[in-house]
Design goal:
Chain lengths: ~280, ~270
């Protein structure tokens, strides 16, 4: 039941967001006022400022796709309808986010938080981030970039001679294979690899990754950084495994690398006591 | 790349995905790690993974005897080897020099009793200079070090040789009633428990060291010793030691003198 409750909460948040946007006359508000809203921290806003970029507006994109009834029974192979709904919801949410960013005059969105919930009849995707633009009033591009990197990471990439071009994602839902009773009996006391299981999971993972890569290819990127692969059973249909992967597509900008040599520092504050190399990997 | 030269135990889907990686790289490296690996003169090629779902056999244990459960040890070894080898094969397909940031995980699924998925994921990298950095067996090196650690290691004239591990599944004897009663109310060491844990750890660490010796490495860094009961009950424990074997490249130490900073973060 928890998943439903979460889903309701998300739907509630979404409704509130939409209502407040409608009430304020979103597009006119962002054009008429000079000030900007963003969920960047002060540090992030400062480092962005140091490379000449400024936050423009807090933008949001959301989409819900319905899943047809009766697809969660335990059969074989991929649950195609669920994979398609996931791709649809994520794609639409990203497009909505881009549209809001364009309306606000941003060149791209950084720090995109992707919140996607899969329910029995619904896939719900919400993306929230800060639209940013370089100072000097350059004309915004027709297709603003999206990135789940923080303002700090964006700055680092920028200085290192790379530009984010978009968010790539892929997911796949697959039924766990079944083992025949005789095979289970035969294998019960042995050390053996269960090859049909291995192959099924492999195929699912590969198709999720491949979908992500094909989006990255369409965006004409040179690579994807910070890919997060997650997998696990679907809460209400535990025989179905969900694989999802997403990351930021980057492209070499052609600008020289301005990062310079790396220096080694030893921080002297208490926070360093809790320093953990794994935390730098963002998980 | 055609399917013809794809190793037999890699699925065809993997071949297709890897072929696409000629144009585009993927990596689970953070931006910091990505930039540091570029600074160290390497380029990420792609996310590589290996996976195996393995059914673990059954071994009877004597209630009052401490012993290694060789069949279970073998299962844990085999399954991890399968996953690691498949990951290395993917790296080989990409013509990589090595794999950094390797994570080795064990997942259990509800639908597979006594079966566990062993999975290895990492980012394949290649030197931009074209000089081969493979290990002395001619294979891509593997390492569980982060991008930051990899950079630091390279600056000190070392290079990872391989992810080495040793494992031992050990059954620790229960204590007899007489022994339990004998120690009630006293401060005493329980020598049979101590000895069993000692022996299991020693076995795991020795096996790890042997793997490192085979790679001709000068040392092992970042060793972790993990103790897990998995699904075998409290007296059967897997001791796993895992670390990155490193070798000396003979290159000069270029690590800058550390600067101390007082950070303004809170």
């Amino acid at each position: 039941m928890t998943s439903t409750a979460d889903g309701d909460a998300t739907a509630g948040n979404l409704r509130d967001t939409l209502l407040s946007l409608a009430a304020n006359g979103y597009a006119s508000r962002s054009k008429s006022q000079k000030g900007s809203t963003s969920d960047l921290s002060i540090d992030e806003a400062l480092v962005l400022h140091s490379i000449g970029w400024e936050p423009v507006e807090l933008v949001c994109g959301a989409a819900a796709f319905s899943i047809p009834a009766g697809i969660w029974t335990w059969t074989q192979g991929e649950v195609v309808a669920a994979s398609a709904a996931y791709a649809g919801a994520m794609g639409r949410a990203a497009a909505a986010l881009q549209a809001e960013c364009r309306a606000a005059g941003g060149h791209g969105v950084v720090g995109v938080r992707v919140d996607v919930t899969v329910e029995r009849h619904l896939v719900n995707a919400v993306m929230v981030g800060s639209a940013v633009a370089p100072g000097g009033g350059a004309r915004p591009p027709a297709m603003p970039f999206l990135s789940d990197l923080s303002g700090r990471d964006f700055t680092l990439l920028h200085l290192g001679g790379w530009d984010p071009v978009g968010l790539a994602f892929g997911a796949s839902f697959v039924n766990a294979p079944r083992r025949s009773v005789s095979a289970a009996m035969r294998q019960s006391s042995q050390n053996v690899e269960l090859t049909n299981y291995t192959e099924a999971l492999y195929a699912a993972r590969e198709s999720a990754m491949e979908r992500m890569q094909s989006i990255a290819g369409q965006l004409a990127g040179h690579g994807v950084v910070g890919v997060r692969v997650s997998e696990g059973p679907v809460p209400f249909a535990r025989h179905v495994l969900r694989f999802s992967a997403w990351g930021t597509v980057v492209k070499a900008s052609g600008r020289p690398d301005e990062l310079g040599p790396v220096s080694v520092v030893v921080p002297l504050d208490d926070a360093a006591l809790a320093f953990d190399a794994a935390s730098l990997r963002g998980r | 790349m055609s399917d013809a030269n794809l190793p037999a135990d890699l699925p065809r889907d993997a071949g297709k995905r890897l072929a696409e990686l000629k144009k585009l790289f993927t990596s689970d490296l953070s931006v910091n790690e990505f930039l540091l690996i570029k600074q160290a003169g390497f380029h990420p090629l792609g996310l590589v993974m290996g996976s195996s779902i393995y059914h673990t056999g059954i071994q009877t244990r004597k209630w009052s005897k401490s012993q290694e459960l060789t069949k279970l040890t073998e299962a844990m070894y085999n399954a991890r080897e399968l996953a690691m080898t498949r990951m290395e094969e993917e790296a080989e397909q990409l013509d990589a020099d090595g794999v950094v940031g390797v994570r080795l995980d064990v997942n259990y699924y509800e639908w597979g009793s006594d079966a566990a998925e062993f999975i290895a994921v990492g980012t394949a990298v290649k030197a931009e200079s074209g000089v081969s950095h493979r290990n002395r067996l001619g294979k891509p090196f593997t390492s569980d070090l982060s991008g930051q650690d990899f950079w630091t290691l390279m600056q000190t004239g070392h290079i990872p040789q391989g992810l080495v591990m040793g494992t031992c599944v050990y059954h620790i004897a229960h204590r007899g009633l007489a022994q339990t009663l004998g120690s009630v109310g006293q401060n005493v060491e329980l020598p049979n428990f101590t000895q069993a844990l000692y022996e299991a750890r020693e076995l795991a660490m020795t096996r790890m060291q042997e793997e490192a010796e085979r790679l001709g490495s000068t040392g092992i860094v970042g060793v972790r010793l993990e103790e897990k009961s998995h699904q075998w009950g409290s007296h059967t424990i897997e001791f796993l030691s895992i670390g990155t074997a490193v070798g000396d490249t003979g290159a000069a130490v270029t690590l800058p003198q550390p600067t101390t900073v007082i950070s303004l973060d809170n």
